[in-house]
Amino acid sequence: MRAEKSRNEKRERIMKGGGSMSFAFAVLFSFLCFSAFGFRLASAAGRKPEFTTYQTTVLHMEKRDVTITPEEAEKIRRALEDYLTQTSDADLEKTIPREFISALPRRVEAPRVDATGQVRFGPWRLESEGDQIQVTCRLPKSDQTTAHYLLRYTAPLQENPWKVSSVTFEQISSQ
Question: Any idea of the CA torsion for 45, 48, 52, 56, to the nearest 10 degrees?
Answer without folding.
Answer: 180
